[in-house]
Specification:
Blueprint lengths: L2 H13 L6 E5 L1 H13 L3 E3 L4 E3 L10 E5 L18 E3 L4 E3 L1 H11 L2 H12 L13 H12 L4
Parallel strand pairs: 1-4
Antiparallel strand pairs: 2-3, 3-4, 5-6
Helix pairs in contact: 3-4
Length: 151
């Protein structure tokens, strides 16, 4: 098992993160096969939110949301999603590395993203040395969380 596998398991165990929205990370080329397979398995594609829901009565909140490597999530985002090269192979799946995940959370900067980051800071995976690894605006956002993790 790689260090990353251990890290992900430890994050889930120590923080107790429960993710209600699954995200899958793809290049645009890969998505065609994924859509076909998901639809064949009974999922319904929700085009407006680029997600699959569990059949016609499925809820978007519990859906499988698609994210595209190297693409902006929203037009106003200042940085694109990380490239697939910023990932590692885990036991059964490919997972983005912690720096890439941190950047995604800092770009999105929603309440739930900040809470995820506070949890990761709380278990010591991100500390005061991390802002130096980031572009200025993202470093500033991370420093806010480091300085005041309780809001």
């Amino acid at each position: 098992m790689t260090l990353l596998n251990d890290l992900v398991r430890d994050i889930i165990t120590m923080v107790g993160l429960v993710v209600t929205v699954l995200g899958f990370y793809y290049t645009i080329v890969q998505i065609r096969k994924t859509k076909s397979a998901a639809i064949a398995a009974g999922f319904v594609y929700h085009q407006e939110f680029d997600a699959f829901i569990d059949g016609p009565v499925g809820k978007l909140k519990a859906g499988i949301h698609l994210l595209y490597a190297g693409e902006l999530l929203r037009p106003e985002d200042m940085y694109p999603n990380p490239a697939l090269t910023e990932s590692e192979r885990a036991a059964e799946f490919q997972v983005i590395n912690l720096v890439a995940l941190l950047r995604m959370k800092l770009v999105s900067w929603r309440d739930k993203d900040r809470m995820h980051l506070i949890d990761i800071i709380g278990v010591g995976l991100i500390d005061k040395t991390w802002p130096a690894r980031l572009p200025p605006l993202l470093a500033e956002r991370l420093q806010q969380l480091l300085d005041n993790p309780n809001g």
